TrEMBL record:
<comment type="pathway">
    <text>Glycan degradation; xylan degradation.</text>
</comment>
<keyword id="KW-0858">Xylan degradation</keyword>
<keyword id="KW-0326">Glycosidase</keyword>
<dbReference type="Pfam" id="PF00331">
    <property type="entry name" value="Glyco_hydro_10"/>
</dbReference>
<dbReference type="InterPro" id="IPR001000">
    <property type="entry name" value="GH10_dom"/>
</dbReference>
<keyword id="KW-0732">Signal</keyword>
<feature type="signal peptide">
    <location>
        <begin position="1"/>
        <end position="18"/>
    </location>
</feature>
<dbReference type="GO" id="GO:0005576">
    <property type="term" value="C:extracellular region"/>
</dbReference>
<dbReference type="GO" id="GO:0045493">
    <property type="term" value="P:xylan catabolic process"/>
</dbReference>
<dbReference type="GO" id="GO:0031176">
    <property type="term" value="F:endo-1,4-beta-xylanase activity"/>
</dbReference>
<dbReference type="InterPro" id="IPR044846">
    <property type="entry name" value="GH10"/>
</dbReference>
<keyword id="KW-0624">Polysaccharide degradation</keyword>
<dbReference type="InterPro" id="IPR017853">
    <property type="entry name" value="GH"/>
</dbReference>
<feature type="domain" description="GH10">
    <location>
        <begin position="23"/>
        <end position="334"/>
    </location>
</feature>
<keyword id="KW-0119">Carbohydrate metabolism</keyword>
<protein>
    <recommendedName>
        <fullName>Beta-xylanase</fullName>
        <ecNumber>3.2.1.8</ecNumber>
    </recommendedName>
</protein>
<keyword id="KW-0964">Secreted</keyword>
Length: 375
């Protein structure tokens, strides 16, 4: 194809007809996914989209597999909430990103008592062997350890850290690897997107230490929660992922939502949100080891943001009435353009997306021009 034809094809693309996972796979990613939380399972309108494999190739239980759900009292395991979502993936054939084994939050009280090293090590071992054992063979990936650091790069003084120091991380990864050898083992955190803050540096140092101690870490998950207009640039995201890529075999965006800080929003706010989403997806497309993107729920109806940050919200790609936003159309356009131009894996690829008046998306394929892709 000549460049002029390619260019025309991009501008006349009709991404509204296309779905995110289908486009993402065509563009060379492994999946485009969403979190699903238990309260949404009874909502048929919600589930029709959540179960659509062409839209979402992967689902993540938002809460169902957290410690407070899976081992609410010591040694008593309950998989009802986690299974309800894992079963959706079984039925549809979607991948399951499992989340999360060891986290300082949403912990039952007994885990936070004062234990010595051996006691804590046994508690972690029992928890991981049971939970990862229960889901063995079902998880594409496990977020083994979640959010071990404060934003200043210091270790969180969690119950696990107090008892074991950094060894709790090493131990968790070792037990997870023994329990389900074929799942990808991830470290997952937020505010590790904008290169090169103290938390990113601490994460890199931790991963090196844990690997040197003989544990396997396959992936680093960047959660990707951010605010419209204050989101990291594509360049920053790519720089960070390049640093992570030196240590692990894959990276991913695991919990993306980009919230408005003032509501109601204007058209300009919504276009800015689209640009911010496009930067995230573009950074993944241009990072060879980035396997996929998970959004932290797809509709504002089930977003955690208003509950956590009162007055902020509308962070998702669909609004609460299940209308697709400009951000959705823009992400779809970018994925479609990348698929058509074969940009993925070409180091020089730099598709630029302009979101204009009324959400009209223009994609400039700099890489196609520079490298003659498709000629
Ligand atoms: C993180 O590491 C990078 C690269 O070594 C360095 O340039 C940067 O100053 C560090 N950031 C902090 C906050 O220490």
């Amino acid at each position: 194809m000549h460049f002029s034809q390619l260019f025309v094809a991009l501008l006349t693309a009709a991404p509204a007809d296309c779905q995110l996972d289908k486009l993402a796979k065509a563009a060379g990613l492994k999946y485009f996914g969403t979190a699903v939380d238990n309260p949404a399972l009874n909502n048929q309108q919600y589930m029709r989209i959540a179960r659509d494999k062409d839209e979402f190739g992967s689902i993540t239980p938002a809460n169902g597999q957290k410690w407070s759900n899976t081992e609410p009292s010591q040694g008593r395991f309950n998989y009802g909430s986690g299974d309800a979502i894992a079963n959706v993936a079984k039925q549809t054939g979607q991948l399951l990103r499992c989340h999360t084994l060891v986290w300082y939050n949403q912990l039952p009280g007994y885990v936070s008592s004062n234990y010595n090293r051996d006691q804590m090590q046994r508690i972690i071992t029992t928890h991981i062997q049971n939970v990862a054992g229960h889901y063995k063979g079902q998880c594409y990936a496990w977020d083994v350890v979640n959010e071990a650091f404060e934003d200043d790069g210091k270790f969180r003084q969690s119950a696990m850290y107090r008892a074991m120091g950094i060894d709790y991380i090493t131990h968790s990864f070792k037990i997870a690897a023994q329990t389900d050898p074929s799942t990808k083992l991830y470290y997952n955190d937020f505010n590790i997107e904008r290169c090169c803050n103290a938390k990113i540096n601490a994460t890199l140092a931790m991963v090196k230490t844990v690997q040197a101690a003989g544990a396997r870490i396959d992936g680093i998950g960047m959660q990707g929660h951010s605010r419209v207009g204050k989101s990291p640039s594509k360049r920053e995201l790519m720089d960070t992922m390049a640093r992570f890529s030196e240590l692990v075999q894959e990276v991913a965006f695991t919990e993306v939502d980009i919230r408005h800080t003032k509501l109601p929003t204007t058209a300009a706010d919504r276009e800015q949100q689209a640009k911010d989403y496009v930067d995230v997806v573009g950074a993944c497309l241009e990072t060879p080891k980035c396997v996929g993107i998970t959004i932290w729920d797809y509709t504002d109806q089930y977003s955690w943001i208003p509950g956590q940050y009162p007055g902020e919200g509308e962070a998702c790609l669909w609004d609460r009435s299940y209308n697709k936003k400009v951000a959705y159309t823009s992400v779809a356009s970018l994925l479609q353009s990348a698929a058509e131009a074969g940009l993925r894996g070409k180091a020089v690829a730099t598709p630029a997306v302009d979101v204009g008046e009324g959400g009209k998306v223009t994609v400039r394929t700099v890489a196609a021009e520079a490298t003659g892709v498709g000629r």
